[in-house]
Amino acid sequence: MRYRAALILTLSLLLPQPSLAQLYRWTDEQGTVHYTADPDRIPEAYRAGVRVLPVPAAPAAPPAPEPSAPSAGVARISFTPGFPILVSARINGTGPVTLILDTGSDRTVVSPAALGGLGIPIGSGTRAGIKGVTGSAQAEVVWVSSIEVGEARVGSLAIIAHDAELRHAHGLLGRDFLAHFTVTIDPKEGVVTLAPR
Question: What is the pTM of this model?
Fold first, then answer.
């Protein structure tokens, strides 16, 4: 089955930074909505239609548990070449939720509905307003104690609770998780390997 739309989200939300970050939104000819924090990544053909979305930087995060080292296990994820890489993840030991492995996303993004379904409270974290062509939306920074993909585990992460309106996934698995691992994507074999650094 082909995905009609994909979302590329690069969310530069540095928690202790006191200034405003810029988020850019554009839509391509297939109707796919794209976000980036780097205007140089916007294709020239779409620059005239870009909307600049101010994202207030969050205040310093509340004290969180010390991050745990990634697990010693290696995760192997099968995928179909040419399609988004879907992973089954557990958050705070519950789940699974389906996330798109996105090496271009700074942060892991999970829909509020999926987080609520896992019993993870939302509504009391740091809020960030997003305004786009289709209206306004709210995103929230939520601290989770762990995210696991197979044997790969990272503890204490600040993720983004936002409904990215992905058709076949609950969100994106970003570099805040992936940076703890050596990520090897083998399109010939259709396997992604996450090995602890």
Answer: 0.63
